[in-house]
Write the structure tokens for this entry.
Amino acid sequence: MKTIIEPFKIKTVEQLYFTTPEERKGLLTAAHYNPFLLHSEDVLIDLLTDSGTTAMSAKQWSALMDGDEAYAGSRSYYKFEEAVCDITGFSNIIPTHQGRAAEKILFSILGAPGKIIPNNTHFDTTRANIEESGSLAVDLPDPSGIKTEVAADFKGNMDTDALRALIARVGAENIPVVMLTVTNNSGGGQPVSMKNIRDVSAIAHEYRIPFYLDACRFAENAMFIKLREPGYENTPVKKIAQEMFSYADGCTMSAKKDGLVNTGGWLAINDDKLAAKARNVLIVTEGFPTYGGLARRDLEAIARGLVEVLDESYLAYRLRSIEYLGDAVEKNGVPIMRPTGGHAVYLDAKRFAPHIHLDHFPAQAIVCALYLKGGIRSVEVGSVMFGTYGPNTDDRSGAREQIHPPMQLVRLAVPRRVYTQSHIDYVAEAVSEVYAEREKLTGLRFTYEAPVLRHFTARFALV
Ligand SMILES: *Cc1c(COP(=O)(O)O)cnc(C)c1O
């Protein structure tokens, strides 16, 4: 059979709430044109994020009931540790309440002013935690990764020549860790090849620099390797994942992605001395090392989620459902980042709305239009999220001008196991209609912006 179906049936349902276009106009104005500020009950299809929005399975829900809520030495912790260890092979598994807590602990130990931490592309919380430690976060994406119209198999790769050049320029002693994010979330959810993981690991280790994976979407990345990288077509996905981790000295993880749970994460470290330091920070900031800021039942759900996420019928459906949405909008001419990634479809706002000046946030304008059209919530991944300021060279009064990242994207992130094919058909229809009326889109300007991670709380007005 050709049709790839959802490999689950529905046991519990959750009501969707409908609003009229007139109501949405008022709601969006009240939210200052920032859908992060909408109430979720005013959203029909929520594609803001795939983080923590997973539908858990009946087996996960029943595992919650079996949680052992002991403060220390909980049976649920040992189950979790065994499940993580089985896949990653790392020797110290430190649970945290989510991914950024693992980042905070790692970089508060390894980071310092003058240190430089490279990645294919840092995720926003990773960058913020690195910068908070005084270190500099450097992105070294493969050149194909920032061209939306070029379809390549592994656009998430790191540019290994650029990594060698960076090490030569700043000195290995100033690089406390090399990170690699699988899949490359901020780079369009594009996968990293096993060859690239191996190469980056070899370069880091040649200079005795530890190598860590940001492993949030390790299972989706492993499935892409199976489908696209010669030599892996007949390898079980779990073995591929195990090989990916075998090249690293540790990882940070948000279980809200490929842990198939609503909260949780971990920091895994092979170096025992570093792990001891990390546990000391953990006790002050998160909790005792056998629960790390989570209810113990949450560890049960992660342990089960890690089994389910490596089920190949799930991963085949997962990657196909994203590609299906990409195909459906491309058929109507909508410019997207090609090929589609593992968790989201990214619209290319520069080609979608070329009439809007970058200073007026074309991707944010599309995000607003999708909400008005269909009650769909998406997120801007462009200048609002990653823009910075620099001095305006044409203006001697000291005015600042916006510095724009290379891509202006709208991310339609698909929660895991939540929406059906007809929901996705509806999304494709709304996106295509907004594209057909694209010359009506209007740009935006800030009326409020926070000094860090401004996209979460920004307020806008129409220009
Ligand atoms: C989500 C994410 C994080 C941070 O994890 P949280 O659980 O949201 O704190 C880090 N890196 C990547 C690539 C992510 O997608």
